[in-house]
Every structure is written in C-alpha cells, then in structure tokens.
C-alpha cells in the first residue's frame, strides 16, 4: 500500500534552535499534505494543510512564523519548528492523500517525529 | 461542543468480549467517516471506512447514523492485539479532517 515516510523519527534539540521535519510520499503524489501535533493521551490536532506550490493553510491558533511549512514538490513537505522552546516538545505527524482522491480517500500517515526541546 | 466527540474510556474487557464505541459529530454536512487505530507512540492506521449502509470486516462492524450524527464501531471476540486507541475521523467540507480524541481499549487475558 501507499507509504508516507517521515524523518527524523526522534530529535532532541536545545532551546532556541530550529528543527526541520520531512514528510515524503514514497509511491504516490500528494498535492496536499497535513501536519498534526499530538500531546500524550490526546487526539491529533491539525496544525496546517500543506499545498504543493503555494502557501500552507494554518489552523486557528497555530503561528505560521513559528511552524514554517514548505511543500516544494508533489512528494515532499517539510515542517520547520523555529526557535524551539520546551513547550514545542510533542509528537508531530504528517499525512497525505493521493492526488485526485476526494475527501473519501484514505489518509496515509507518516511514522511521526517526536521532538524534545531541552 | 466539539466537532467530533468520543468516550475516552478506557474500556477494559476480557478476551472474547464484544465491545462497542460510539462517536458523535456536529457538522451535518460531513461527507465521509473512518475509524483509525493508533498504537502507543505510533502513527494512526486506517481500520475501516464507514458507509451509510454499514460495513463489516471480520470481527469489526461499523455503522453510520446520519440522522443522529453518530458512527459506531463494534468489535466481536476481542483479542489481546486489539488493545489500542481507536480514533473516530470525520471529513467535513473540502479536505478538512477532524479527529476525535480517541477511545482507549485494553483487552486482558
């Protein structure tokens, strides 16, 4: 089946540094990808919708300057957490739906990236 | 009111039991519905889509009630490996996907 690869799976960084997380669709093209954040024992919270070749659409309350999203190709979206702080520590997950699939199409998830900011 | 609501549980059931989860959604224009399974510290994976006519996949049965705006998941003959968090997922208009908070299931020997 379709695969979405997310990298790195785990990252530890110092406060104030920036961290980039990559999300790749390996065997399909994805015009749209989604970035989520998940706190322990909580549900996935949609942060933003990443659109190939255009600006991402951010959910209310998510700082676009803090969480930079770039969707430079049909198979790659990146999330950069800028000037990370301990409260940014979380599990970040991306998902993608194959181009041409409507809302009924299956979402494929990356393996997630666990960010710890010291 | 949350857009998608689930009982967080946990549900603690013995092996072989039948267990049912419900999920309610607030947007009557929602178009598609899914149940995803998420194991601890892993990404969610699609368990099954939920169709208006209901659908069954082995021990799992999903139902949709548009009039009352809820979906359900029934697990029969529970296995230890069914222990996980089950996420109710609703697609509203466009491509916006809303996740419920998840229902935790523990199946014990």
Shape designation of chain B: globular
Question: What is the subunit arrangement here?
Answer: heterodimer
| Number of helices, where a helix is a run of at least 4 consecutive DSSP H or I residues of chain B | 0
Strand content of chain A: over 45%
Distance between the termini of chain A: 37 Å
Q: Would you list the SSEs of chain B in sequence order as H and E?
A: EEEEEEEEEEE
Question: Distance N terminus to C terminus of chain B?
Answer: 37 Å
Strand and helix order of chain A: EEEEEEEEEEE
Shape label of chain A: globular
Tell me the total number of β-strands of chain B.
11
Mean pLDDT of chain B comes to 91
Please tally the β strands of chain A and state the result: 11
Class derived from helix and strand content of chain B: mainly beta
Highlighted features:
A: 118 residues, mainly beta, seven-stranded mixed β-sheet, 11 strands, 0% helix, globular, B: 109 residues, six-stranded mixed β-sheet, five-stranded antiparallel β-sheet, 54% strand
């Amino acid at each position: 089946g379709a695969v979405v690869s997310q990298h790195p799976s785990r990252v530890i960084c110092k406060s104030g540094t920036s961290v980039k997380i990559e999300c790749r669709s390996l065997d399909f093209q994805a015009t749209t990808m989604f970035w989520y954040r998940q706190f322990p024992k909580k549900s996935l919270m949609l942060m933003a919708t990443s659109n190939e070749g255009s600006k991402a659409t951010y959910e209310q309350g998510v700082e676009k300057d803090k969480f930079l999203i770039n969707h430079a190709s049909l198979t790659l979206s990146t999330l950069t957490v800028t000037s990370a702080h301990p409260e940014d520590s979380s599990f970040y997950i991306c998902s993608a739906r194959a181009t041409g699939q409507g809302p009924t199409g299956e979402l494929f998830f990356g393996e997630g990236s666990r960010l710890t900011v010291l | 009111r949350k857009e998608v609501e689930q009982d967080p549980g946990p549900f603690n059931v013995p092996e072989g039991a039948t267990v049912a989860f419900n999920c309610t959604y607030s947007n009557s224009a929602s178009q598609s519905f899914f149940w995803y399974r998420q194991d601890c510290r892993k990404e969610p994976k699609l368990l099954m889509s939920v169709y208006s006519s209901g659908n069954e996949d082995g021990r799992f049965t999903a139902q949709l009630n548009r009039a009352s705006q809820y979906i359900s998941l029934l697990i029969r003959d529970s296995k230890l490996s069914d222990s996980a968090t089950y996420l109710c997922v609703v697609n509203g208009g466009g491509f916006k996907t809303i996740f419920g908070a998840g229902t935790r299931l523990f199946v014990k020997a």
